[in-house]
Amino acid sequence: MSVLTKIIATLDTMAPADRQIGQFIVDNPDEMLRLSSVALGEQTGRSQSSVVKFAQKLGYPSYQQLKLAVSEAKAQQWQAPPGMVHGSIDRADGYVAVQQKLVAGKLAAMQQTMSVNSEQTMERVLDLLDRAERIHLAGVSASSLVARDFAIKLMKLGRNVLHDSDSHVQLASAASLGTRDVMLAFSHSGTSIETVRIAELAKQRGATVVVISSLRDNPLSAISDIVLHSVSDEDNVRSSSITARDAQLALTDLLFILLVQREDDANDHIHRSEAAVAALKVR
């Protein structure tokens, strides 16, 4: 996971001193790389020890190790394609600028989401889905749309899937889960009360709980057995959770493709599903 992505995702939960240091690093990564711990402390109005402790809280034994991580993050950082603008959409933006910022924001969210989830974690989730007797997908609002999309894909693979947009029905379904079942709970904020309650109930019933949520610590992630992270610049785009939804969809599409690769008869399942639906299309 990129250290810059981690800092951005946790800024709101940091203590004031750490937030000031973190914000400076995010806003001025190139300048930070030229500064000593003493100089960075002077730039942010904090002490050298505060800078060193900030590095340690992020998991780096020294400030030099933090600088190395920032340097690596800069080298790998996603860049908008030439001619494409990436930034906050403003009311005064013209049609072309809105187009470019929207597409660039979507691309950034998907690329960063892919980068923060390790192959090992994805493999663990795939193993759980392979072994699950039943798979319950939970989510409300925009996350419910993502859950429904993934439920349809899993059904095409012949999986026993439970999903309903009504949170009361989701609770009832969660109450029927057992130790051989898996719950996938979607919430970018991780604070949706309905989804948290549904996941809690599934956990009480002995089901394995997989959460798809943001990098920030939140009540839903605290319940989980495994967390997959979605990265989204929702502070800049407040239009119906656009980039959060795209980040979640990118993850579920990846899971679906990897499941198809694992199963020898996956294409047979999909073709039978397509044939059944084809009979309902106008010719």
From TrEMBL:
Residues 125-265 form the SIS domain. The keyword Glycoprotein does not apply. Keywords: DNA-binding, Transcription, Transcription regulation. Residues 1-77 form the HTH rpiR-type domain. Coiled coil: none annotated. SUPFAM superfamilies: Homeodomain-like, SIS domain. Pfam families: HTH_6, SIS. The keyword Transcription applies. It comes from the Bacteria. PANTHER family: GLUCOKINASE, HTH-TYPE TRANSCRIPTIONAL REGULATOR MURR. This is MurR/RpiR family transcriptional regulator.
